[in-house]
Design a protein that fits this description.
314 residues, alpha+beta, 20% strand, membrane, transmembrane helix
Length: 314
């Protein structure tokens, strides 16, 4: 053993201590494989709570309500061969099932029944009422553009001998109606500056519709409109005729008005002959009695209607 020099500290004696780790790695030992990152389960974490800010929107650059809306997520189609909404109870569709019977079926039935009834009603009405091609029943009458040339008023000429040199003629010709009108001024003498009475005749030929119901309503109820008029139905003229008279004078006083009208319907022809006169205490004019005028109207109406049936027309 080597002696230590004088004054050197004593060296400790070696003891049994574990040996130091070798400087080189130990031989490879079998080890358990380390799991990859994908295999390590990551615990769910709560979403981070955004710290409150002074700006009221979630994102200062894109406030809620602005910018393009998020595209809706398209619904996924059902698996191939499966109807939307799945199969009905039982697992499989029922092919060839009969249509359900209910309110819908009954409604269709009512619609068809209504159509049949409407068609039958229309056909029946058509047969009952006829159509626009019905031939007019004019009984041989023909309208004239100069009706005054066919008017006979000879019964009035004893009372009114002065001839009217400018009578008024009006006429109308249409596919639905032909009309003739004549107005004659009656004068007692040539010294009369104004008419002493008024006389007119009108004839209408209805070529599309039957005037019967309207004619009856108008003349049979004429006194409903004027309380001073009297209505009497007379015979011997066409299919029906009415005499309408009015007399507002009293006694020997010729002041007031008197009038008489004979209205005749013969088939689809309607006819009117009118007379009227007006008197006052200031006029030196006398008016004939209404009863006398009624007889004149009847006589001249028969003669005039004969003339109109023999006329050559417009």
């Amino acid at each position: 053993m080597t002696e230590r020099p004088e004054g050197a500290p004593a060296q400790p004696q070696p003891q049994d201590q574990p040996s130091a780790a070798p400087a080189y790695p130990p031989p490879a030992q079998p080890s358990t494989p380390t799991p990859t990152q994908a295999e390590i389960p990551v615990p769910a974490q709560a979403p981070a709570q955004q710290a409150p800010t002074a700006y009221p929107y979630p994102n200062p650059q894109s406030p809620v309500g602005y910018g393009p809306p998020a595209a809706p997520i398209p619904a996924q189609a059902p698996p191939y061969g499966q109807p939307v909404g799945g199969y009905p109870p039982g697992g499989h569709p029922h092919f060839g099932a009969p249509p359900a019977k209910g309110a819908g079926g009954r409604a269709v039935l009512w619609v068809l029944l209504g159509a049949v009834v409407a068609s039958a009603a229309w056909g029946g009405g058509f047969l009952l009422l006829g159509n626009d091609d019905t031939e007019a029943d004019l009984r041989g009458y023909e309208a004239k553009s100069n009706l005054c040339s066919s008017v006979d008023y000879s019964s009035f000429k004893n009372e009114y001998p002065e001839e009217d040199t400018a009578p008024v003629n009006n006429s109308l010709e249409h596919e639905a109606l032909d009309q003739g009108y004549c107005s004659i001024s009656l004068k007692e003498s040539s010294t009369s500056s104004l008419s002493d009475a008024y006389f007119s005749v009108q004839m209408d030929l209805h070529k599309k519709t039957d005037p019967g119901p309207e004619f009856t309503a108008l003349w049979s109820e004429y006194d409903q409109r004027y309380e001073d008029y009297e209505v009497d139905e007379v015979s011997g003229f066409g299919d029906e005729a009415y005499l309408v008279t009015e007399d507002t004078s009293s006694g020997d006083d010729d002041s007031g008005s008197r009038s008489a009208t004979l209205a005749v319907r013969d088939g689809w022809m309607t006819y009117e002959m009118r007379w009227s006169a007006y008197g006052s205490t200031y006029d030196d004019v006398t008016m004939p009695d209404v009863d006398d005028v009624v007889e004149w109207l009847k006589t001249d109406t028969n003669a005039t209607l004969d003339n109109l049936r023999e006329s050559d027309g417009i």
